[in-house]
Automatic annotation (TrEMBL):
Domain Phosphomannose isomerase type I catalytic, residue spans: 5-102
Top-rank lineage group of the source organism: Bacteria
GO molecular function: isomerase activity
InterPro entries found in the cross-reference section: Carb_Metab_Reg_Kinase/Isom, Man6P_Isoase-1, Man6P_isomerase_Firm_short, MPI_cupin_dom, PMI_typeI_cat, RmlC-like_jellyroll, RmlC_Cupin_sf
Stated name of the protein: Mannose-6-phosphate isomerase
Pfam families in UniProt: MPI_cupin_dom (PF21621), PMI_typeI_cat (PF20511)
UniProt EC number: 5.3.1.8
Named cofactor requirement(s): Zn(2+)
Coiled coil: none
Amino acid sequence: MEPLFMEPVFQEKIWGGNSLNTIFGFELPSERVGEDWAISAHPHGVSTIKNGPFKGQKLDQLWQEHQELFGNQQGDVFPLLVKILDAADDLSVQVHPDDSYALKHEGEFGKTECWYIIDAKPGAQIIYGHNAKSREELAQMIREERWDELFNRVTVKKGDFFYVPSGTIHGIGEGIMILETQQSSDTTYRVYDYDRTDKKGNARELHIDQSIDVTTVPARKESLNILEKRQGESSVITYLETEFFNVYEWQVHGILKLKKQAPYTLATVTDGFGRLIVEGKTYELTMGTSFILPNDIESWEVQGEATLIASEPGKNV
């Protein structure tokens, strides 16, 4: 069995730019591309397989018709979505619901996500959490637009990692590129959007009532138990093991040998270049390459000088 390589799916955004071209070499449809949905079966942007016996098929179709590729996992929906985001401008400050709220109100799963900072301009910041002590105080601070008091800002740099569970107020700042691993959901509640208007002069919709409903209060302090396992000059860094996904960094300096530890594995090259070797066959890897290693691939090897962010379905998926 071959790895499944993905065609990128680009999403134009009011805050997007062209760094997915200048850094990753992608051919973009405009100068305002904010996202590459790198591995996705979500109906708002479905990946197409670009190689092998399933070339030209959509990932959602593969999930429905060839469950053996994914270890016969349960569920109607492929559970993960991997994106590369280029924030040429500030994203809205937002929050996502959990599964129970989203299924009841939106008809899809909630959205827990995490971010690996691919690159960031000096001094770039994210909004990560809030300072309200009660839901009543949260509502009051939002209604009074006391943004500087409410939002918690964090300066970031290349290589940082953040866990963003549902209920976390967050916003990606200008000059940041991230690899996002998330539940397969596109439900976002905007708290604040910097009073921006679109090209027609219309303000984008805010979702104040929903945001107050779903925000975790007081904000939860997330602590990561990051583990590194070295293999010569290369290493595997474990960032997260959650009910939704497990996320790793593969740091390749020469050779990195890996074995299957989940029904399937997703990976994206965020830096450098190299080769993926599966059952004696070699596949070239360049920045932005995204692929799935299906269930019947037991082991593989990555060679070169590269960083990849990999993920697997979590224990409850």
